[in-house]
Amino acid sequence: MTTTSSEIEIRIFGARNAGKTTYLATLAACPSGLKEKYPGIEVIPRTTETQSLADLAEDILKKQARIAPTIYDAEQQHNLPYYDFLIKIPAYEKRKEIDIELTTRDFPGEFFENIPRRDKEQEIITWIDELFTTTRWIIMMTDWEPQWDKSVYKPAFEKLCQELSEREENNGELKDLRIAVVMNKCERGELWPCRLDPDEDLFEVRLPETYQLLKKNISDHRLQFFACSAFGILCDRREGFDPRPNCYLPDDGTPEEVKAYLRDPGSWYPYGLIPPLYWLATGIRLEE
Ligand SMILES: Nc1nc2c(ncn2[C@@H]2O[C@H](COP(=O)(O)OP(=O)(O)OP(=O)(O)O)[C@@H](O)[C@H]2O)c(=O)[nH]1
Ligand SMILES: [Mg+2]
Prior knowledge:
CATH topology: Rossmann fold
CATH superfamily: P-loop containing nucleotide triphosphate hydrolases
Order of helices and strands: EHHEHEEHHEHEHHEEEEEH
Strand content: 15-25%
CATH class: Alpha Beta
Shape: globular
Structural class: alpha/beta
Helix content: 25-40%
Bound molecules: guanosine-5'-triphosphate, magnesium ion
Number of helices: 9
Number of strands: 11
Number of domains: 1
CATH architecture: 3-Layer(aba) Sandwich
Distance between the termini: 24 Å
């Protein structure tokens, strides 16, 4: 059977503490729960920088600590690391075999928060230029701060939509822009049942202003909503199913949106890691 190959270069950005670096480290480590869900999957880190992401998962996540926040340095966007993966997904039922060659850069959350700020306009524009060097984005959010829907997320997306419509006039490739908007940390009890219809049950309900803005400005073939959890639940198998979040929270007073640890590295079933990448690569939605 022939294998389809797809090369994609993506930018991953979004709110601070949304779990962007943890998402990439989890992908690089490819825990056994992910392998169970996609039998025969291989995730091959192709550079030392990418291998160091897999090491973060081994050295930090599996030892129940947290990965350091990604530092924002206004002058240093050109220094953000490149990660380079080969993701081999075998054929399964109706799904065809595919090799996804993925190159990505992981942005600091502070960048996203700065997008709508007038006083940051000059420094942020080179970062936005960098986003527009690709036509595949993952934008990662959480719903921890409901007031951010109106005060941060919506204004950030307004600015991005405005930049998009201005740049489209001179850059035909942007017609092919695909944006996967991902709600992360959905292992939490109140979110878990909503993961199956993230569009209406997560985004429309929890981030309504942002959702309405995006739906109004960007058509469905360029924009899709996803649910994800790098940590997942304790057992995602039918046999032995255990829906408790695979996550424990510190009791040192740190807010849980900032610090949460993997509870049982031995039962690590990440949820929804592959579908946004698969859609970005193929335009087809996978359901988990
Ligand atoms: N509950 C839960 N917490 C998570 C998950 N993924 C990451 N976290 C936690 O969220 C916090 C932030 O994770 P990071 O990966 O550093 O987030 P980030 O988006 O890269 O943050 P910045 O680099 O500051 O923009 C850490 O305490 C993680 O352990 C998840 O799936 N569920
Ligand atoms: Mg980070």
